[in-house]
């Protein structure tokens, strides 16, 4: 099953089928990792993000369920994140190599790779147990869908989607303003989360307006990637700060942090330009269009029945 809602099948029926598929796929890859721990954790967390985004989209139809399941899936993702922290730091250091301006910065990166305590947080056995526990939690979340009834009149589906879409766009615009005003790492993290969710919404409803949504999805993906690098560098900076005593030279630290700050600044400037272009329209316009397209899709399906 593709990650795409089918208005003609009904919002809840379609959403429950997708949620079940995402959760079971996350469980399966954690139970039998085909390409190692890092890849399995990455794939599972991606599935969990997609499930959480879909729960957010249908939140008005089942607010209590959305709240409880969001907490459950968030906690699963956090447990898994600890298994990939070390790899993320290494990837960030390697990412910076192509942006080093001089030999001092290249040497500082090599020094960081050798002196930072970049180790997996858990032993192999503990990591396997964490993954198995997460897989069981995903299966429990999937099982819950079968026993949960979410009554919803078909006529209300378009309004629920419209409400969630508008709320997300408002959240994105608020994050942009916060980024402009304070340039705090948390503001850019919020913008990244909003952008990722927007990409998922566009994916879920891409059948309503394929050509326009394909362009928007591409733009959202590019912005999310930029913000992802920015977020990784913030984590790297924090790790370096926490282990500063491992560096034998303040000069090495200075070169390293200078490179990180310079690259972060460039990424933030790039992200803000792209975000304003992506989220710059009136927040009421796109949700209203989507609601109308949803209704037309349902009407067309009803006529052909």
UniProtKB/TrEMBL annotation:
PROSITE patterns: CHAD (PS51708). Residues 8-295 form the CHAD domain. InterPro entries: CHAD_dom, CHAD_dom_sf. Signal peptide: none annotated. It comes from the Bacteria. This is CHAD domain-containing protein. It comes from Allorhizobium terrae. The lineage of its organism: Bacteria, Pseudomonadati, Pseudomonadota, Alphaproteobacteria, Hyphomicrobiales.
């Amino acid at each position: 099953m593709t990650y795409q809602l089918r208005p003609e099948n009904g919002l809840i029926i379609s959403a429950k089928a997708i949620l079940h598929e995402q959760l079971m796929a996350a469980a399966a890859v954690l139970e039998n990792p085909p390409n190692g721990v890092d890849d399995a954790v990455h794939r599972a967390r991606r599935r969990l993000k997609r499930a959480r985004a879909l729960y957010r989209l249908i939140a008005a139809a089942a607010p209590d369920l959305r709240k409880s399941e969001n907490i459950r899936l968030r906690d699963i993702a956090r447990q898994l994140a600890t298994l990939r922290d070390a790899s993320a730091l290494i990837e960030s250091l390697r990412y910076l190599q192509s942006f080093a301006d001089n030999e001092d910065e290249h040497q500082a990166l090599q020094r960081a790779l050798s002196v930072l305590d970049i180790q997996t947080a858990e032993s192999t056995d503990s990591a396997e147990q964490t993954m198995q526990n997460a897989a069981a939690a995903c299966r429990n979340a999937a099982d819950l869908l079968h026993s949960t009834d979410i009554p919803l009149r078909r006529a209300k589906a378009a309004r629920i989607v419209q409400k969630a879409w508008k709320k997300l766009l408002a959240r994105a615009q608020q994050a942009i303003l916060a980024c402009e005003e304070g340039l705090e790492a948390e503001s850019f993290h919020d913008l990244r989360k909003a952008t990722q969710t927007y990409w998922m919404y566009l994916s879920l409803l891409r059948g309503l307006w394929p050509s326009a949504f394909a362009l928007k999805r591409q733009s959202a993906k590019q912005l999310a990637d930029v913000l992802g690098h920015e977020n990784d560098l913030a984590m790297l900076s924090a790790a370096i700060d926490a282990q500063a005593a491992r560096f034998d030279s303040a000069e090495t630290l200075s070169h390293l942090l200078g490179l990180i700050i310079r690259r972060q600044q460039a990424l933030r400037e790039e992200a803000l330009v792209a975000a304003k272009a992506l989220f710059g329209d009136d927040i009421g316009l796109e949700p209203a269009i989507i609601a109308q397209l949803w209704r037309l899709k349902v009407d067309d399906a009803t006529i052909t029945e």
